[in-house]
DNA sequence: AGTTTGGGTGTACGTGTGTACACCCAAACT
DNA sequence: AGTTTGGGTGTACACACGTACACCCAAACT
């Protein structure tokens, strides 16, 4: 039971992050109080300040953490063979799987993206922009997009990300895991429609 | 200065609705307090109950009101000739115009759709579902979709609505009206891409 | 061994919150 | 003319909030 000081601090910090994520799950960060978090963690309110200077900075830490989960998902998706064959099915499956496993993180992103303190909102939008940009460079490697302008790639990427964010949000508010299938099925069809649109883009002059 | 009783009541009710909409603009309904609203309106807190039984029911009233604005937009969009020629440009223009004019209502929908009290969230999602359904029946009238299944129509409609909601949210968080052009331009391109996808859908067997 | 450091504690404050209760008074009914 | 109705008032309560301050004590340095 010898526990070094930094270990103990890290443990409490983790507890605060977890409590914050759990407590704002029904409502939002802006409705989350420092005292609620402290009570949940089992520390006195003022001890909170030893780890974060405000609820908002807790929120920013949660943004970082949530996007670690999201980027892990993107990595999984990316390491498939870049073929049109099963890319849609694979991607949607991986999305659904990650949303299931890290539900709280994805829910946090979806929720605080629209509501949430301005700083947190901005941080999330910035991260999503980065994801869009990454997707755009990936799309550029796919066969058939050689002649595309950078702008069109960005616009397509934005459309795909938007649709996938919406899919994630739908999956999160799915009451039971059983209700996931129609949602993923819709997402698959939509991705295919967009892909068909992309493949026929600019071929008409 | 003769004012009937129902007139006066209606006037206060309006003031409460307006104050509620304005106050939750930065934050969210869940962070809105009855006392804030009362102070803004200029009545004593308990007088609030003469009009709404809780903040949440105020929220439901605001949902109704906001969707009146949104449906007005849909009506405007619909009454264009159903041709592919300028349907995209027209629709996006009308969207941007209505978002500008009824910014608070559209912002409310976008915000409380994700955060916001569960009842309010559900009400908004239900209304959006209705819009999707309406759009699907409209799409069925367009030339080229005769052979489509009802399910595919619904899926396409969902994709379009999702993209337009995202566009509206981007327009709302645009700092200046001048920043609108790239956003609408993106929306236009995306709609065209989706349309190209739709037109080539199922023609491949 | 002696001192410093720092996470956690307990008390205390002013303020904001929802809501209960008794009350007022002019418009609206009889 | 007399009574009822109902929007608005004022006081009061128990609670939750953020935060300031003095304090504790074991791990970490010297």
TrEMBL record, chains A, B:
<keyword id="KW-0804">Transcription</keyword>
<keyword id="KW-0238">DNA-binding</keyword>
<dbReference type="Pfam" id="PF00440">
    <property type="entry name" value="TetR_N"/>
</dbReference>
<dbReference type="Pfam" id="PF21943">
    <property type="entry name" value="TetR_C_46"/>
</dbReference>
<dbReference type="InterPro" id="IPR001647">
    <property type="entry name" value="HTH_TetR"/>
</dbReference>
<keyword id="KW-0805">Transcription regulation</keyword>
<protein>
    <submittedName>
        <fullName>DNA-binding transcriptional regulator, AcrR family</fullName>
    </submittedName>
</protein>
<dbReference type="InterPro" id="IPR054129">
    <property type="entry name" value="DesT_TetR_C"/>
</dbReference>
<dbReference type="InterPro" id="IPR050692">
    <property type="entry name" value="HTH_transcr_repressor_FabR"/>
</dbReference>
<dbReference type="GO" id="GO:0003677">
    <property type="term" value="F:DNA binding"/>
</dbReference>
<dbReference type="InterPro" id="IPR009057">
    <property type="entry name" value="Homeodomain-like_sf"/>
</dbReference>
